[in-house]
Amino acid sequence: QVVFALNQTLLQQESLRAGSFQIPYTTEDLIKHYNCGDLSSIIFNHDTSQVPNFINATLPAHERITAQEIDSYFRQELIYKRNERMGRRVKDLLEEYPDKSFFFAFGAGHFMGNNTLIDVLRKEGYEVEHTPAGQAI
Prior knowledge:
By secondary structure, the chain is an all-alpha fold. Helices cover 50% and strands 0% of the residues. The chain has one domain. It has helices spanning 2-18, 27-35, 61-96, 117-123. Helix 3 (61-96) crosses helix 4. The longest helix has 36 residues, at 61-96. It is flat, with a radius of gyration of 18 Å. Mean pLDDT is 77; it is low at 46-51.
């Protein structure tokens, strides 16, 4: 699976360089949507937006199954479990020090797709509020 994932990633990078494949958004788009608090935008609304896309229709059936397994593994390990761990750490701090105030800052990856850090904390009963760029806290 590692060799397959590496080959697919390299093929995708070669397609990017050749101009036959384009990422649907730029780094500037990510920054703009993040700063505007537009976390429900199409850019942030994909489970696999942080993970290389291994699944494509041109793969033979047995390779497509491998691609789906890898995609599922990455989504679970790199997105869902990471946000669960981070949410648990935040919750533990808040419960351990209930009389203290906290400020948490996270990278954009914690807010992308489903099962975000915000989703995890809201499931735990916390009210989470976005503070737009430039707004005084």
